[in-house]
Design brief:
The complex is a heterodimer of chains A (881) and B (198).
Chain A: H1 3-17, H2 21-32, H3 36-48, H4 58-64, E1 70-78, E2 82-89, E3 95-102, H5 108-124, E4 133-138, E5 144-149, E6 153-155, H6 156-162, H7 167-186, E7 199-204, E8 207-212, H8 217-220, H9 223-229, H10 234-237, H11 258-274, H12 281-284, H13 289-298, H14 304-310, H15 313-322, H16 327-334, H17 337-345, H18 357-368, H19 380-391, H20 398-422, H21 428-432, H22 435-450, H23 460-491, H24 498-540, H25 549-558, E9 581-586, E10 593-597, E11 633-637, E12 640-644, E13 661-665, E14 668-671, H26 677-684, H27 715-724, H28 732-740, H29 765-770, E15 810-816, E16 824-826, E17 831-832, E18 841-844, E19 860-863, E20 872-873, E21 877-879
Parallel strand pairs in A: 15-20
Antiparallel strand pairs in A: 1-2, 2-3, 3-5, 4-5, 6-7, 7-8, 9-10, 10-11, 11-14, 12-13, 14-21, 15-18, 16-17, 18-19
Chain B: H1 8-17, H2 21-43, H3 54-65, H4 72-99, H5 120-123, H6 128-144, H7 146-158, H8 162-169, H9 173-192
The chains are: A alpha+beta (881), B mainly alpha (198).
Chain lengths: 881, 198
């Protein structure tokens, strides 16, 4: 089709769709002037045309929607679900009605069927504050419509603002709305889409009556169905986000109940009282859908009074003026009871909301009558849950955060003790117990415990002192705490004030925390002390060692390429015994010396004494077999100069791999293998977090062992664990130096990707099959046979003897991500970009899910510190002392 | 630059916004790689008829790569780039998938199954052959009118609404609506009768 004809087709198409459906064919025929091809082309397009969901005008409605008993008078508006028209009912009585025509794209039959279910119940509703739904049907074009009592009035918010109604008048009106909703609830009908625009205020003389419209429609028109068809308008697809309850925004919660309407009424109250929505529309609607839903579930809006304080002064002045008051007076009126009532109605946890609308209405009435309301200020447990909810999902923050939480919680509980004391509700037991001091002791004990790492002899004295003072003090506090909790439990009954429940909960949790500390964490330090007292002897003369430190030092100092690689020569390493390591010997292939980390081989729970641990040895081919019981094997890398970054002509490289720099590093230890799951377990004393381990068994992925790399570990996890045992993460420069092993090519085996075969575990057919053919790779001919990660010693090592630097799992590096333009902060280990604590961290090497491109020696990537994934692990390093 | 991170992408977005073609290419690579990685993750371990959720993937990529407040211009640029990347990923995926499902016979694409063209979430349910048909038809549409094809791409593969598309392409909302109406009818016809109308 030539451009002119294309343009002509388009013009005719648009001209035609602007007309009612019935006229289109005639219009096109007339304009085509006998060009039958053109005519049939345009008509075919029109046949394929689907009516957009733009508001329909009244004329079109009359043309296209034939209502049996109604005459359309004009449009009233359009909204998320469709368009609303004013119409006249002709039979059996003549009256004005509102007809809501649901937009195209809904499953008409299902909508009507669901409506039928509720129809009888809807018919039973007869309340001043509810606009009745009268009828439902289908237009000639197959669109469902609903006929409702017509309410000539404005939305409640507009009504109140225009008349400058004060808070009392607004609350009174809100009580009317509650009455309507309560009536419907008694008939078993939920509204599910309460909002200001669904509450219209009809005025007759002096009387203003709020009327709720659209009752029962939300049920018939399932928003999930809308979502399936109308995603381009996200605000429509999920209902009205500003009023949506957290349970409606949660994918897991399918049920809604009366408390969902309570929530929406709470939002309406918030808006009526303050002039602002709890979650501002402009912020909310900017978010992508998933974020939006999360915001509804998790973000805690300020209390009404706080909100007024925080908003822009101009907006607040207007809001106050509309309420016939001044900003400071508005804040004073809201603070306290109204804050509490709204807070209770809009609690994210529906268990904590008013159970019924009647309760909410009752509190509003009590407030008007100056009686004490039932809602109170949020308590300690409530705040804890809020904090937890806010932090849920942030796996990273870990212990420090939890500690803060516990301390915060207990501090709040103490506040409660005070208040309760004043009310004479508490007896001596509770007051005597200095809980806060105990919690502070626990926190301090843990902080100082973390400073006792690594468990080496120089810290033995500190460990003893810690055990004798801090651990003992907490252990001694336990009986008193237990007695207090027991006393509180015994006196608990139906009349126990809520505040006391919270206190008991807080104390019980603290008790559990301290009991856990005494049962698990103290013995761990005792074990560390035991280890620290032996480690020097083990290091110097392990009964199973085949080589002494003196021999190793002598060989490395010679660096004659016979007893040790000549690469050691320039730095002239003066090797002294390294705490916790035992020399394994020279790797006969690389001629580099390798050492064994005892602690990662020692399993305190498995019985074998550290003296009995076997020390691995090299095969003739330089191999070391890694089994479940094997500890970390560290290679002493000679210092040297290398190129950090991509070659100038590497067209696979990205900008961040430049500018390449010549860098000289001091000697350091780096692990031959990625850290295994068994090593992680022994070092951490906990379970492996890995996704693919011995328990993972499917037709495509099976036979995995604990000698596979650990994964799903965050940078924070790795950093903490390695430091606790005298090791570190490698810096990015160290990693690339180790991976290159003297090469300057893309991968250590060469520039040609074919050379990677047998030396790298990348995404291949095995992985693609295991993924259900979901994955793709630009190099489909590559095959390594591993569907997920391989055992850490699975494939050919590089010239330094290191396995799996390309592929298998990504490996965390120490440094924050920084451009190569940034200067180094320390030259000996090539650290860069220090300072920015929260910056993402570098990851290197690619994985079994990566293509060869991502596995290049110079390829850089990063992830947030707390990020973890099933193809991201770690390789240990250690400084030479 | 370190201070701007995870702003590698933020910087690229700004440069691309200023018309830097090299930055645009780098941005596309980065977004593609990220989406692909996330897609891989989201699918790993599942078997059989798993689905891709384009909007979810695009949003996750956004969080991982940018994940903070940036100006609207950059945001739109990102989603525009992501739309193209997502299309490539879905089409690649569909090609692979189809290879295993040959011989079942092509079915018409449910473009108007529910009144509007299959939207982003629905796209996840679209069978590979249908997706490929959409892709091919889109390529043909682009030959006639690149902007219309872009409108469809932005709506399908990044879940942008008409206002966002209008802002991204620098045209009015009315133009987007017209383009969309026409493109949809045209695509539907193409896919229903692939040998006709070009």
């Amino acid at each position: 089709m030539d451009p002119e004809r294309w343009q002509r087709v388009e013009e005719l198409f648009h001209a035609a769709i602007a007309r009612p459906a019935g006229e289109r064919t005639a219009v096109v025929t007339a304009q085509c002037g006998g060009d039958d091809d053109l005519r049939s082309e345009v008509l075919a397009l029109l046949a394929a045309h689907v009516e957009e969901d733009s508001p329909l005008d009244a004329k079109r409605v009359e043309d296209e929607l034939r209502f049996d008993r109604y005459r359309v008078l004009g449009p009233l508006g359009s909204g998320g679900m469709g368009s609303v028209f004013l119409a006249e009912q002709l039979h059996p009585i003549r009256r004005q009605v509102a007809i809501k025509v649901i937009r195209l794209g809904m499953d008409t039959e299902r909508v009507l069927k669901r409506f039928e279910v509720e129809r009888q119940a809807l018919a039973l509703m007869n309340h001043d504050n509810i606009a009745r739904v009268l009828d439902a049907g289908t237009t000639a074009r197959g669109q469902p419509y609903f006929v409702m009592e017509h309410v000539p009035g404005q939305p409640i918010t507009t009504h109140c603002d225009e008349r400058r109604l004060d808070l009392r008048a607004r609350i009174a009106m809100l009580c009317g709305v509650c009455a309507g909703v309560q009536h419907a609830h008694q008939k078993g009908i939920l509204h599910r889409d309460l909002k200001a625009s669904n509450v219209l205020v009809a005025t007759a003389g002096d009387r203003a009556v709020p009327k709720i419209i659209d009752f029962g429609l939300a049920r018939a028109i399932d928003h999930r169905e809308l979502q399936a068809t109308l995603s381009s308008d996200r605000e429509i697809a999920i209902g009205t986000p500003e009023y949506m309850s957290p349970e409606q925004a949660s994918p897991e919660t399918l049920d809604v109940d009366t408390r969902t309407d309570v929530y929406a009424l709470g939002v309406l109250a918030y808006e009526l009282l303050t002039g602002f929505l709890p979650l501002p529309s402009d912020q909310l609607r900017r978010l992508p859908l998933t974020e939006l839903l999360r915001a509804i579930r998790e973000s805690e809006p300020p209390r009404p009074s706080e909100r007024v304080i925080r908003e822009h002064p101009d907006a607040v002045r207007l809001a106050a003026a509309n309420r016939a008051t001044t900003p400071p007076a508005l804040v004073r009126s809201l603070r306290g009871e109204l804050d509490w009532i709204v807070g209770r109605a809009t609690d994210k946890e529906r268990e904590r909301r008013y159970a019924t609308v009647a309760e909410l209405a009752d509190d509003l009435r009590r407030h008007l009558a100056c009686e004490p309301v039932r809602a109170g200020p949020p308590g300690a447990g409530y705040r804890l849950r809020k904090l937890l909810r806010r932090h849920r999902g942030q796996v990273v923050a870990g212990i420090a955060l939890l500690l803060t939480l516990v301390v915060g919680l207990v501090a709040t509980a103490i506040g409660f003790t005070e208040a309760a004391h004043q009310r004479n509700r508490f007896e001596a037991k509770v007051q005597e117990f200095d809980l806060l001091a105990t919690i502070e002791q626990l926190r301090g004990a843990r902080v100082r415990r973390d400073a006792l790492h690594p468990a080496w002899p120089e810290r033995a004295a500190d460990m003893r002192s810690w055990l004798d003072t801090e651990a003992r003090r907490l252990r001694d506090a336990l009986p008193e705490l237990r007695r207090t909790v027991r006393a509180l439990s015994e006196r608990a009954n139906a009349d126990t004030p809520e505040s006391e429940h919270f206190l008991r909960g807080a104390l019980t949790r603290s008790l559990g925390d301290i009991e856990g500390f005494v049962a698990d964490e103290v013995p761990a330090v005792e074990r560390d002390l035991w280890w620290a007292e032996r480690i020097d002897a083990l290091t110097r003369s392990h009964p199973r060692a085949r080589v002494s430190w003196a021999d190793a030092a002598a060989a490395i100092a010679r660096a004659d390429d016979i007893t040790a690689s000549a690469l050691y020569r320039p730095g002239a390493i003066d090797l002294r015994p390294q705490t916790g390591l035992v020399p394994i010997g020279m790797n006969p292939v690389t001629r580099l010396w390798e050492f064994y980390d005892l602690r990662s081989a020692w399993d305190p729970d498995a019985g074998a004494a550290p003296e009995e641990l076997p020390i691995p040895s090299h095969g003739a081919d330089g191999a070391i077999d890694v089994g479940d019981a094997t500890g970390i094997v560290l290679v002493l890398l000679p210092g040297g100069t290398f190129r950090l970054g991509a070659a100038d002509d590497d067209e696979l490289a990205t900008d961040d791999e430049y500018p390449a720099t010549e860098l000289t590093l001091a000697p350091f230890f780096v692990a031959r293998h990625e850290l295994t799951q068994a090593q992680w377990r022994r070092l951490s004393g906990g379970a492996t977090p890995s996704a693919f381990g011995p328990d993972y068994d499917t037709p495509n992925v099976h036979g995995l062992t604990s000698a596979h790399p650990v994964e799903q570990v965050s940078w924070d996890d790795c950093d903490r664990l390695l430091r606790a045992h005298g090791m570190t993460l490698p810096t990015e420069a160290q990693w690339e130096y180790a991976a290159r092993a003297g090469t300057v090519s893309r991968w250590w085996p060469g520039d040609d990707r074919e050379a990677l075969r047998g030396g790298a575990n990348l995404l291949d057919r095995a992985g693609i099959v295991a993924s259900g053919n979901a994955l793709t790779t630009p190099w489909p001919e590559f095959f390594d046979g591993f569907p997920v990660h391989a055992p850490v010693d699975g494939l050919r090592p590089n010239a330094f003897g290191l396995h799996h630097v390309h592929g298998n799992v990504w490996e965390w590096c120490l440094d924050p991500w920084a451009s190569y333009d940034e200067p180094l902060t320390a030259s000996a280990d090539g650290t860069r970009g220090a300072g920015d604590e929260l910056a993402p961290r570098v990851i290197r090497g690619g994985s079994f899910l990566s293509a060869h491109l991502a596995a290049r020696s110079s390829k850089r990537d990063y992830a947030q510190r707390g990020f973890f994934a099933e193809d991201l692990g770690v390789r240990a390093a250690r400084a030479l002392r | 630059m370190a201070a701007e991170l995870p702003g590698d992408v933020t910087r690229l977005l700004q440069q691309a916004g200023a018309g830097d073609r090299r930055a645009l290419t780098a941005l596309m690579d980065r977004v593609y790689a990220e989406l692909h990685r996330i897609a891989e993750r989201s699918m790993r371990g599942e078997r059989g008829d798993h689905t891709l959720q384009p909007t979810a993937l695009v949003n996750e990529a956004w969080l991982r790569l940018v994940g903070r407040d940036v100006d609207w211009e950059s945001r739109r640029h990102f989603f525009a780039t992501a739309a193209t990347a997502m299309r490539r990923i879905l089409v690649d995926h569909a090609r692979r998938h189809r290879a295993h499902r040959r011989g079942r016979g092509a079915r018409p694409v449910p473009l108007d199954a529910a009144g509007t063209v299959a939207d982003v979430e629905q796209l996840a349910e679209v069978r590979p052959d249908q997706l490929l048909a959409i892709d091919e038809a889109l390529a043909r549409l682009a030959e006639h009118d690149a902007r219309k094809a872009r409108v469809v791409e932005l709506r399908f593969f990044a879940g942008l609404n008409h206002d966002e598309i209008a802002a991204t392409l620098g045209v009015s909302r009315a133009t987007v609506e017209r383009d969309w109406a026409f493109a949809r009818a045209w695509l539907h016809r193409q896919i229903a009768e692939p040998d006709d109308g070009s």
